Amino acid sequence: MKPKLLPLTGCFLLFYFLTHTVWALNGHADLGSWTGFGQHVGRVLGQPSAWTFLVTCWGVYLLFYTCYPTRGIALTLLLYLLLALPAAIAFRYGLEEVVLYRLTGRHQYGEAMLAPRPYFLDNLYFAFYYSAVGVVFFFVQHALFAQQRQQQLQGQLQQAELAFLKSQVNPHFLFNSLNNIYALVYQESANALPAISQLSELLRYLLYEKSATVPLQQEVAYLQNFIDLQLLRYDYIPALRVHLPLPTRTHPQILPLTLIPLVENAFKHGSLKDPQRPLTIELHTAERHLTFCVRNATRPQHKDAAGGIGLTNLRQRLALVYPGTHRLQLEEVDGLFTATLTLPLHA
User: Fold this and answer.
1) Which of 41, 68, 137, 322 is the most exposed place for a label (fewest CB within 10 A)?
2) Could you give the angle at the alpha carbon of 249 between the alpha carbons of 245 and 254, nearest 5°?
3) Which residues contact 267 (CB under 8 A, 6 or more apart)?
4) Do 105 and 210 fall within a single domain?
């Protein structure tokens, strides 16, 4: 937080002017014409006390700016009451009743008010009254700075948590894919080498994509590569229906690695042997939102529970990036598991 004396000066002069305008109106001053109002402005801002109290306001503001963050409120208030206010009174006396008196031959106060006790009490009120502008200005600035800092820290924490969650996607995906390729190699399948090549392309996307969001087209291309890699491990023709159309007029962005966990879950736990109940992967995009639906028949020995690393990780990342604007619905009815994800789309 940096000191802001220029905005403080503007606030003080406005406060000082409004205060003296109210006093003038209560004294039945004629401010109804531009001439009268202009003379009033000149009188108010031409008073030596205006600039004396401005310096007081600066000093108190700098006192709180310097002491409050490191010394706390108790010591700062003590210094304000025992040091700043008496110093402000002494400064005004020295400037107006000593320096200006020698220059103009005129006191700002009457002789009776120049006695120490009445002068101190009268100026204690004014010093407190006008220095309050500096105190209030400081705490408003400090509150805004603290709020901004908190938002920055929350943003940094969110980015760190998101990066951690994304780092978990890589080993989780790699672990499952290597198991699939191991099975192909063990079976001496001709699909083993294409699978390794396909995996290298996917890992390139996983490891080198550092953007917070990616084009939907890029995410869908990655998803298609993943589907092709999964299909290599089957020794029969899987029952599969894929519909992944892309918008042609817009280029929306999406959180990377958002679609794959639902598809990965379906390949891992679903049955692809029934042509009447194929694994269905559908993408629908409207002007401002995306709907991604994955539907698969379940196997008796496996459950498409909403737990596991992949889906749990996905839920956490969605909550961070799309708080309150996404919907992930998982349901199983009559041996058919359906996962539906709805997200807002941004250009």
Assistant:
1) 41
2) 65
3) 230, 279
4) no
Which amino acid is present at 96?
E
The residue ranges of DSSP E strands in 104-219, in sequence order, are: 214-215
- Residues 90 and 217 both lie in one domain: no
- In this structure, what CATH number is given to the domain that contains residue 244? 3.30.565.10
pLDDT tens digits, 11-62: 999 998 888 887 777 665 555 555 556 666 667 667 888 888 999 999 999 9
Looking at 149, 181, 199, the residue that finishes a domain is 149
Q: Containing domain of residue 263, as a range?
A: 189-344
172 in a structural domain: no
pTM > 0.85: no
Q: CA-to-CA distance for 122 and 107, rounded, in angstroms?
A: 15
Shortest CA distance to 224 belongs to which of 200, 244, 199, 204?
A: 244
Per DSSP bridges, beta strands 327-333 and 270-271 are unpaired
- Whether 332 is in a domain gets the answer yes
